[in-house]
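Re: the 214-residue chain
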Amino acid sequence: MRDTPQAGRRSATARRPAAASPANKHQQRTAATRRALLQSARRIIARDGFEACRIEDIAASTGHTRGAFYAHFPNKEDLFFAIFEQEARRRVEKIRKVLESRPTSLDRLAALREFYVDRVSDRQWAMLLLEFKLFALRHPRLRPKLAATHRHLRASLRLENVDQTCDEPKKAALEAILSGLSLEHAYDPVRISKEQATAILGTLFDTLVPGTCR
C-alpha cells in the first residue's frame, strides 16, 4: 500500500524531536527562590564577610527560612562556589558578546581593555572576590577547587590575542592590581579617584598585553 501525503506528514512529525517542555510553576518558583538566595548572599557576604554571614540572614532577606536555603545548598561552601561560578560566568558571557561584535583583532583588544579598566568601580565584586580568596586560603582543602574553577572559567573565554601575548603570571598581575585598586578607590576615593585608577589600569594593560598601546 502506498503512503498517503497525510501518512508522510505524520511520519515526519513522529521523527521530529519534541520541543523542550516549558518549566512548570513549581520549577519556576524553585528557580526564582535560588536566584533570590544567591542575590541575597552576594549582598550579605559583601556586607558581613563570608565567615560572619549567617544562613538565617540570607534566607530571611528573601522571605524564606533555613529550610528553603538547605533545599538549594547543602552548606555555605556550596553557596560560596555557586555565587562565584554564577558571577564569573556572567562576566565571561558579557565580554564574549562584546568581543564577538568587534570585526578585527585590534578592535577586540580595545574592547577588552575598556572592559578591564571599567571594572575598577565594581566595588561589590572586588569585595566578594577578596572574600572568596581569603576563605580558600583559610580552608586549604577548598583552595584547589576554587583555583581550578577560576582557571576553567578564564580558559572558556578564549581570548586568542591575549592568550598568545600574555602569559598566566601577567594575567594574574592584571587581576591582582585591578582588585587592589578597586578596593583602594572604594576605601579612599580622595587618595585615588576613579579616573586615576582607570588611567593606571589602562597603562598596565597596555604594558602587559602588547598590541594595545596607543
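The chain has a mean pLDDT of 80.
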